[in-house]
Structure formats: structure tokens, C-alpha cells
């Protein structure tokens, strides 16, 4: 049988019974090395996916459609997954929203905007091509549809905040739009708008769906556009029935904070995700930053780390590359057990020192000498 006709189901790794039988004698890394000579997404247990389609959505924004192997788990529209690629000789992981809905063929889609200085986003947007293979993590995130949907809904999307909300919009459309849905979509320049033909088609097909493009940095507006940053006056004009609606907001942290302030007190419900971390709580353990010793138990290394840095930033500054994803304390990819010592959560200010408790490196600071199972 040729490599071209050999299917993943023909490999022992695709049979859970075979894996249980062979696990004591198979080295997964060796298996992956040889299996991927036949097909780069075959693996013993590693979730991988091949890029099968690349769609230019807007300047510096592409949709990548991926065909996953059987180790990639399920997802719900509105969730995220960590994507991993090799960039400049090292593996880089970041979290991105899924923009599609579950499909019979299992394919996944991610719409990615290149961010200034973004190592992985630049690689995915400018250099990733059909046939490339990416690593994936499990889906996470709570901004998903309930089993039963009803009432009047409002989606507020700013820039890349459209990505989870287009997934939710597509999921509602697949249910024949059972709610009255209004989508407000802010961009700086109209050229940044994504999914315009699809949104127009959905509005034409579903009378209870409306969408409104809002351009914030172009004084001359095209027909159908409005301008201006999110404000009480703007929402009053565009959403006169706000008090009857459930609100989902996504975008930069400042946008989400403003959306929350303007809508949460009056709307039926408010759910949000921000693309930037919440304000960081100032260290409270000591008046001034000091240096402590962080011992990495598995590698045997001991590092000097400042108490005003997150552990992830401190480790990366000294050349280490622990697994990470969202870098905002959401995905838990960077979590590792604490052996001893005290840390502070930089988002809440909470101090903890329980042994074996997971520490999220991206949002935790060392307060004392610390030992991590890393």
C-alpha cells in the first residue's frame, strides 16, 4: 500500500485498542517521527492540523481553514484554541478564536489579524500556506450559546473582536436565527471589515438579523455606515431597545470596559471577552520590587527573578520558553504546580502559597523564593 492511499485509520495510533496494547513498548516521539514521513499530521497523541484553505479577508487579515487529525477535540462556536507553529527556529503558541461552526468533515477555521510585533500572527498571516501543519490545543472559553436561545440579542464587536462573534452568528444562522440579533461592528478603516458579503447575505435571508458597520477614523462615510467611537448617544440611536437585549461584547480591553459600563446596568445580560488583559494589580507583598530565587525542579535550574515581573515574562527574559497561550490567565496553558513559596495573582492581588496548587505563570508574580514543577 502506498503512502498516498494509507489512511490514518490504517495506523495503529488511530485505534485506541492498539494504542493501549502498544503503549508500553512505543516511544511516541519515535512513532511521530516515522509516521510523519508518510503524513505530517499523523501522530501518536499530538493534536495537529493541516492548512487546506487560505482566504484573504482584509489587509493583514486571513482565514485559515484546517483539517485536523483525530486527536483534536471538539469545540463550541465562540471558543478559542491555542495554535502552535515553528517561527524563527522555536515553537510559538498563541490563542485564537474559532470563527466557524462544527462541520461534518471536522474542519476548523480561524480568522487572524497580524498584530504589530506579533511573532505568531505575522507568521500565520504572511507566511503560512496551504499544506503547512500547525499544532492545536483543546478548546476553551465560556462565551458560547446556551442550549436554548430566546429573546433579543446584541453583539458588540470591535476590530478582531468580530472573530468569536461571527462564530456565534453563524451558529444562530444554522439554527435558522431563532432570536432577534443585532450586530454592531466597529473598525478604524472600512477596509478592515471582514465577512461583509456573508453578513449582507444573512441580513437578506433572516429578517430578524441586522448588522451595522461603524467606522471610527474615516470622516467620509459610505452609504449604510455610521461613524464614531462607542458611546451612550450612539447606542441610544442604534439600539433603542437595549433594555430588552442580551449583550455579548468582544474587542480590545478599553472597548469592552466601555461597553460594560454603558450596557451592563440596563441590558438583560452582559457577557464579554477582551483581547487585552485587565488592569494589573500593583504588588502588595513589598513596597519595592526585590529579587527572589525561583528554582525549576524538573530542569534543575535556579533563576533570579524580580517580584514586579510575571513569572512567564521573567522566565522568557532568561531564555526559557515554557508553554503559553493567551498570556491573560484564561487558557491555563502555562499553568504548572507550585512546590513551595508564595505567589501573587497580578489580576486580583490574591496571595497563595499552597503546595501543588497550579500557578498561571502569565499572571503570577513571585513574592518569596519559589520552587516550581517545571
From TrEMBL:
Transmembrane segments: none annotated. Residues 290-374 form the 2Fe-2S ferredoxin-type domain. Residues 44-146 form the FAD-binding FR-type domain. SUPFAM superfamilies: 2Fe-2S ferredoxin-like (SSF54292), Ferredoxin reductase-like, C-terminal NADP-linked domain (SSF52343), Riboflavin synthase domain-like (SSF63380). This is Ferredoxin reductase. It comes from the Bacteria. GO terms for molecular function: iron-sulfur cluster binding; oxidoreductase activity. Pfam families: FAD_binding_6, Fer2, NAD_binding_1.
Amino acid at each position: 500500500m502506498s503512502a498516498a492511499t494509507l489512511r490514518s485509520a490504517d495506523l495503529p495510533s488511530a485505534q485506541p485498542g492498539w494504542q493501549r496494547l502498544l503503549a508500553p513498548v512505543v516511544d511516541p516521539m519515535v512513532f511521530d517521527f516515522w509516521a510523519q514521513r508518510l503524513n505530517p499530521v499523523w501522530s501518536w497523541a499530538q493534536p495537529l492540523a493541516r492548512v487546506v484553505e487560505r482566504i484573504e479577508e482584509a489587509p493583514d487579515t486571513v482565514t485559515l481553514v484546517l483539517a485536523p487529525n483525530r486527536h483534536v477535540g471538539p469545540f463550541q462556536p465562540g471558543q478559542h484554541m491555542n495554535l502552535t507553529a515553528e517561527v524563527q527556529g522555536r515553537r510559538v503558541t498563541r490563542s485564537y478564536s474559532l470563527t466557524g461552526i462544527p462541520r461534518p468533515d471536522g474542519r476548523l477555521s480561524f480568522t487572524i489579524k497580524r498584530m504589530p510585533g506579533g511573532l505568531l500572527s505575522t507568521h500565520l498571516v504572511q507566511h503560512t500556506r496551504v499544506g503547512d501543519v500547525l499544532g492545536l490545543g483543546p478548546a476553551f472559553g465560556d462565551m458560547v450559546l446556551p442550549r436554548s436561545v430566546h429573546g433579543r440579542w446584541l453583539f458588540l464587536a470591535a476590530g478582531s473582536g468580530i472573530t468569536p462573534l461571527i462564530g456565534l452568528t453563524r451558529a444562530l444562522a444554522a439554527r435558522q436565527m431563532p432570536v432577534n440579533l443585532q450586530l454592531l461592528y466597529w473598525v478604524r478603516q472600512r477596509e478592515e471589515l471582514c465577512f461583509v458579503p456573508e453578513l449582507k447575505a444573512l441580513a437578506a435571508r433572516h429578517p430578524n438579523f441586522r448588522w451595522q458597520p461603524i467606522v471610527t477614523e474615516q470622516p467620509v462615510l459610505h452609504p449604510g455606515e455610521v461613524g464614531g467611537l462607542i458611546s451612550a448617544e450612539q447606542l441610544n440611536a442604534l439600539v433603542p431597545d437595549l433594555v430588552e437585549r442580551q449583550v455579548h461584547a468582544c474587542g480590545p480591553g478599553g472597548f469592552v470596559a466601555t461597553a460594560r459600563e454603558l450596557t451592563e446596568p440596563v441590558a438583560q445580560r452582559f457577557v464579554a471577552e477582551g483581547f487585552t488583559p485587565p488592569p494589573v494589580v500593583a504588588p502588595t507583598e513589598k513596597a519595592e520590587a526585590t529579587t527572589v530565587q525561583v528554582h525549576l525542579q524538573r530542569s534543575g535550574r535556579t533563576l533570579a527573578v524580580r517580584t514586579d515581573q510575571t513569572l512567564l515574562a521573567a522566565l522568557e527574559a532568561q531564555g526559557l520558553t515554557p508553554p503559553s497561550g493567551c498570556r491573560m490567565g484564561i487558557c491555563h496553558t502555562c499553568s504548572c504546580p507550585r512546590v513551595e513559596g508564595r505567589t501573587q495573582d497580578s489580576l486580583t492581588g490574591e496571595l497563595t502559597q499552597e503546595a501543588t496548587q497550579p500557578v498561571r505563570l502569565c499572571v503570577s508574580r513571585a513574592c518569596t523564593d519559589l520552587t516550581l514543577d517545571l
